[in-house]
């Protein structure tokens, strides 16, 4: 009988404050969708880092005849065969180096034509204008500075470049976008909590006569509070379910179908469905507990039970 009474009171409360309940559902849904999206963005950045950092190379570019005339680093002339052998031998001795691949001027020219064949510059470029290089795979991409220190300024070396620096700029941008999403999420959570508290207050005020009678007949504080708390929890849970639907639909249409980013951006290693599905229970739990706790503390302050 008590359970039936509590459930009937929940239905009455939700119907009486239908507009405010709808506002709570929408604000909770949006804030938790942003919450889940920020978690997935963090996973995506971590996945991309692990994927790309494992593939980055350090390139030691060697001086050619053109560099000898224009680049101060190559003032002593183009690299010699003896210098190339010494550089390769020193690279092989370094504990941080996993693999060294030599790229000739002809190979560099071929790769350039493959990537930038439509560029106007490509028509006037010749193989002897490009540089030979050693492409170095490091055991730890963070150890780039070890190679740079050893070979920058060395005879025959034009420059040492780290591809990780380019990726770092991309990941900084993605992290910045992620923090911006978290800031909006935090704002939406505050709005949702304020709506929940206000909805509970209005609901409690509209039923002050019933709660007064219940206190007079000796009903416990929890028994009086339970319908209000559960109203907020039900509204929050509906919002959380909608947020989960947003995330599933977004993953489906953005990556797998619709925009099909997985097919269009083959160089990006997108997160899988497992990453999405593991976030859904957390979102549902948050959507249930957050409104219930907000309602509980609101009732302690505004209902003298």
TrEMBL record:
Superkingdom of source: Bacteria
InterPro entries: ABC3_permease_C, FtsX, FtsX_actino, FtsX_ECD
Keywords for this protein: Cell cycle, Cell division, Cell membrane, Membrane, Transmembrane, Transmembrane helix
UniProt keyword Transmembrane present: yes
ABC3 transporter permease C-terminal domain residues: 183-301
Record's keyword annotation contains Cell cycle: yes
Localization annotation: Cell membrane
Location (main, coarse): membrane
Pfam families named in the record: FtsX, FtsX_ECD
Domain called FtsX extracellular: residue spans: 56-160
Topology of the protein relative to the lipid bilayer: Multi-pass membrane protein
Regions that span the bilayer: 21-41, 179-200, 232-255, 275-299
Family: Belongs to the ABC-4 integral membrane protein family. FtsX subfamily.
Role according to the record: Part of the ABC transporter FtsEX involved in cellular division.
Subunit structure: Forms a membrane-associated complex with FtsE.
Protein name as catalogued: Cell division protein FtsX
């Amino acid at each position: 009988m008590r359970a039936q009474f509590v459930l009937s009171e929940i239905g009455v409360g939700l119907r009486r404050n239908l507009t405010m309940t709808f506002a709570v559902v929408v604000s909770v849904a949006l804030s938790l969708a942003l919450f889940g999206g920020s978690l997935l963005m963090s996973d995506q950045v971590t996945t991309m880092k692990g994927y790309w950092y494992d593939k980055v190379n350090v390139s030691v570019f060697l001086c050619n005849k053109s560099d000898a005339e224009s680049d101060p680093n190559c003032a002593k002339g183009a690299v010699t065969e003896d210098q190339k052998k010494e550089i390769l031998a020193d690279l092989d001795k370094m504990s941080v180096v996993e693999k060294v691949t030599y790229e000739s001027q002809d190979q560099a020219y071929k790769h350039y034509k493959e990537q930038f064949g439509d560029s106007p510059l490509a028509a006037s470029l010749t193989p002897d204008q490009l540089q030979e290089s050693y492409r170095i795979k490091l055991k730890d991409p963070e150890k780039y500075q070890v190679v740079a220190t050893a070979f920058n300024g060395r005879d025959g070396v034009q420059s040492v470049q780290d591809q990780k620096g380019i990726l770092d700029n991309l990941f900084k941008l993605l992290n910045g976008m992620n923090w911006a999403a978290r800031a909006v999420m935090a704002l939406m959570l505050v709005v949702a909590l304020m709506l929940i508290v206000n909805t509970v207050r209005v609901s409690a005020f509209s039923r002050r006569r019933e709660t007064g009678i219940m206190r007079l007949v000796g009903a416990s504080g929890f028994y009086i509070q339970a319908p209000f708390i559960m109203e907020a929890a039900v509204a929050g849970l509906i919002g959380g379910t909608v947020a989960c639907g947003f995330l599933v639909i977004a993953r489906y249409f953005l990556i797998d179908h619709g925009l099909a980013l997985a097919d269009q951006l083959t160089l990006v290693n997108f997160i899988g469905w497992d990453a999405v599905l593991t976030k859904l229970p957390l979102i549902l739990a948050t959507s249930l507990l957050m409104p219930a706790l907000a309602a509980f503390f609101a009732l302690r302050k505004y209902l003298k039970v």
